[in-house]
Design goal:
By secondary structure, the protein is an all-alpha fold. Helix content is about 65%, strand content about 0%. It contains 14 helices and no strands. The longest helix is centred in the middle third of the chain and has 38 residues.
């Protein structure tokens, strides 16, 4: 994945988008992991389980170089610090542990752990004199007032974003609880979850899957079919165009909806893609058998 874009990388969050095309490689290299890696089409690997490799894929060589320079600056500030307080020593130990864990896992993907890491870096990189930088400088009052205003605005935006994330998570949880008993309501809640927080990979992935659940279980299929199903598919596809579960769901929808005569090329394209990338997953061959029976 990194070799495709070694300089600029895939961008922050790009690992989730690009990796489904390569994840079957796990099973080809390590066949003994077939019960733990990608047991079905809805399983996906969303992290490299190595923070350095993950950053290399998303930020490319220049990004990793800048992060390396920042790390060197933090270590230099720590070594030059005149104080050897227990807080600094404990923070240094904690950072070493985070780095070691980051070689085999992804601690920085957890917001709480990432916030803790930022606090630790702040402790280690503070000025050696012990003074707060904003106080030691002769900052004009206007600039200080502007900084304070910006802080208040950022705090307000943070509160609004936190409320949106909370409401999005609430609707997502309700949608998951209602998928089997009330698929129409489940889809409505999933759509609200996407409206409140459209940047969530998880919500975007589930949007089309929830829609197809509603469609396949609806007695009168005219109403769900009248919805903009292509838009929902494209939203879910934005999380990764080669996600096996999404493509199998798309084929299932095209077969059940009656749109298959006009979509044979799309179905055959998806089947060919999955047979090349995930040939060991049984659901792919099941979808192919259903398509063959229908034609």
């Amino acid at each position: 994945l990194w070799l495709e874009r070694p300089i600029l990388g895939w961008g922050l969050g790009g690992f989730d988008y690009g990796y489904p095309r390569f994840q079957q490689y796990h099973l080809q290299v390590f066949p003994e992991f077939d019960q733990t890696v990608l047991p079905n089409v809805f399983s996906f690997v969303d992290s490299a389980h190595n923070e350095a490799l993950h950053l290399l894929v998303e930020l490319g060589l220049p990004g990793v170089f800048l992060i390396g320079l920042f790390g060197i600056a933090v270590v230099r500030a720590m070594l030059m610090a005149t104080s050897r307080s227990p807080l600094i020593l404990m923070s240094a130990c904690a950072m070493v542990f985070l780095c070691v864990i980051g070689m085999i896992s992804f601690p920085m993907r957890n917001p709480a752990t990432a916030a803790l890491g930022a606090i630790i870096l702040g402790i280690l990189a503070r000025p050696t004199s012990g003074k707060v930088l904003i106080i030691s400088l002769n900052v004009p009052r206007l600039i200080a007032a502007g900084a304070a205003t910006a802080g208040v605005v950022i705090l307000g935006l943070t509160m609004v974003a936190s409320a949106s994330i909370y409401l999005s998570g609430f609707h997502f949880a309700v949608s998951q609880a209602l998928r089997d008993v009330a698929p129409a309501r489940a889809f409505a809640h999933m759509r609200q979850a996407h409206v409140y927080f459209p940047y969530s990979f998880q919500h975007r992935r589930q949007l089309y899957l929830t829609y197809v659940d509603w469609f396949s279980k609806a007695k009168d299929k005219r109403k769900p079919l009248a919805a903009d199903h292509q838009m929902y598919f494209e939203i879910s596809q934005s999380t990764g165009p080669y996600t096996p579960g999404l493509l199998v769901t798309r084929i299932r929808f095209l077969l059940v909806s009656g749109l298959m005569p006009d979509s044979r090329f799309e179905i055959e394209r998806h089947l060919k893609s999955m047979k090349e990338r995930v040939p060991l997953i049984a659901d792919v061959h099941t979808a192919e058998a259903l398509y063959a029976r229908q034609i």
